[in-house]
Specification:
Pathway: Glycan biosynthesis; alginate biosynthesis. Keywords: Alginate biosynthesis, Membrane, Periplasm, Signal, Transferase, Transmembrane, Transmembrane helix. This is AlgX/AlgJ SGNH hydrolase-like domain-containing protein. By secondary structure, the protein is of the alpha/beta class. It is built from 15 helices and 10 strands. Among the domains are: about 90-150, no CATH class; about 160-275 and about 315-420, no CATH class. Helices cover about 40% and strands about 15% of the residues. Helix 5 packs parallel to helix 7 and helix 8 (about 230-240) crosses helix 9.
């Protein structure tokens, strides 16, 4: 009778002819291990040889996870390695070309580090690493493209709408308590301003539509935010064309001008009555959405001259993403605001900055990320102004994605403003 007990030795140490022998590391395991090491070491080795990762999506690259995050260190490695792979843009283009040219359908390029998870409607649910529900791009009618985050950020917010409202209110409180004027402007999503080109059906349609309606019903009234939807509609009707680009997520320069006019009139009613606007140069701008599908596309940009006093053009075109604060000065003229303005703005402000510079004598713009990363530096910068203006994107506000919405950030900046009051 044979014994049913296992041999005392580990199966890897048994003689090869033994029926229970199994090598510790088979060939497949070894190949998998080599591939794993190559994947995670590729960003570092390519960096040593001079290659640098570039943004493919309209968001910062994923940061290397901290060892203090526990198991999150290991789950975060995938996002970091994916974002920092060399030649990632070229790979996306190849996949897009194969999918479209061979199979006749758009590539489903998921894998955003900040992707959108299952479990929509849970305010503080953390998105998983892999985006497996919402596509990065929504392909609409007539060739229109929409950023998938317009939908995914609404369906899976990081903060509830109540928390967002509370955070925005806190900012108004700390700024106005220091004697400064506070302006809050929400740049609408392209899908909000031009929903007519959205497809009949798309992932997240129901939850994003409901959240959009709730957002615009509550946020402007509860926070005093400027609702730009009506001014943008009037500008589009006046110009006879859409106020947003068909393949870019941002508004046109006409949208930037509408924003500039609204902010100026809030500071001083009638200030823009002497302005003279005229078309100036045109230039090509690399559209941000096609790259997510592996395509390279550009849109023509029509820029304008703006003479606040009706005379000479006073615009200032300075390319900046505001991660390094941009300071713009101009001699005072009629039709200009002469109070120092310190502004927090994102990519929508890039299309407005030439015109903001034309009508403000002293303007500095910084990015929302800077405020959360270094509240003390942000506080010192905002303390230089008599007017504090926020331009924030709808998708990031609705999704609670701005770290600066935390009350602690507002309080730390507010403490600095309080030490340097105005008036």
């Amino acid at each position: 009778m044979k014994s049913s007990e296992l041999p005392p030795a580990h199966e890897a140490w048994l003689p090869r002819e033994h029926p229970l022998h199994r090598p510790r590391h088979g060939r497949r395991q070894l190949v998998a291990l080599i591939c794993l090491l190559a994947f995670f070491s590729a960003p570092l080795s390519s960096w040593l040889f001079g290659a640098r990762a570039e943004k493919v999506e309209n968001r910062p690259l994923a940061e290397f996870p901290s060892i203090t995050e526990g198991f999150g260190f290991f789950t975060g490695l995938n996002a970091w390695a994916t974002d920092h792979l060399p030649f990632r843009q070229e790979a996306v283009q190849v996949v897009g070309a194969i999918s479209g040219g061979v199979f006749g359908e758009p590539a489903q390029l998921h894998g955003s580090a900040h992707g959108s998870p299952v479990g929509a409607g849970q305010p503080d649910a953390k998105p998983p690493i892999e985006e497996n529900v919402f596509p990065p791009v929504i392909e609409g009618e007539d060739g229109w493209l929409y950023l998938g985050h317009d939908v995914s950020y609404r369906c899976v917010p990081k903060r509830s709408l109540g928390e967002v409202i509370s955070g925005l209110r806190r900012w108004r409180e700390v700024v106005e308590a220091s004697g400064r004027e506070f302006q809050l402007l929400i740049a609408p999503d392209k899908s909000t301003q031009h929903p007519e080109h959205l497809p009949e059906e798309y992932a997240g349609e129901e939850c994003s539509t409901e959240q959009r309606a709730e957002f615009w019903r509550r946020v402007p009234q509860a926070t005093g935010a400027i609702d730009m939807r009506a001014p943008l509609r009037r500008a589009a009707q006046r110009n006879g064309r859409p106020i947003y680009h068909d393949i870019d997520t941002h508004w046109t320069h006409e949208g930037g001008i509408a924003m500039t006019r609204v902010l100026a009139e809030r500071l001083q009613p009638g200030l823009s009555s002497s302005w003279r606007l005229a078309p100036s140069r045109t230039y090509s701008h690399s559209a941000d959405i096609p790259g997510l599908l592996g395509r390279q596309r550009a849109v023509p940009i029509q820029a304008y001259s703006l003479a606040p006093d009706g005379g000479a053009d006073n615009t200032r075109f300075r390319a900046s993403d505001f991660h390094e604060p941009l300071h713009l000065e101009s001699a005072a003229k009629p039709g200009m605001n002469t109070r120092p303005v310190r502004m927090v703005g994102d990519s929508f402000t890039q299309f407005a900055s030439p015109y903001l510079a034309a009508v403000n004598t002293d303007l500095t713009i910084t990015h929302p990320d800077n405020v959360a990363l270094d509240p003390e530096a942000a506080g010192r910068l905002l303390a230089e102004g008599e007017v504090v203006t926020f331009e924030l994107s709808e998708r990031f506000v609705a999704g609670g994605r701005y770290p600066m919405l935390d009350a602690e950030v507002a309080d730390r900046v507010g403490a600095i403003l309080a030490r340097h009051p105005v008036g």
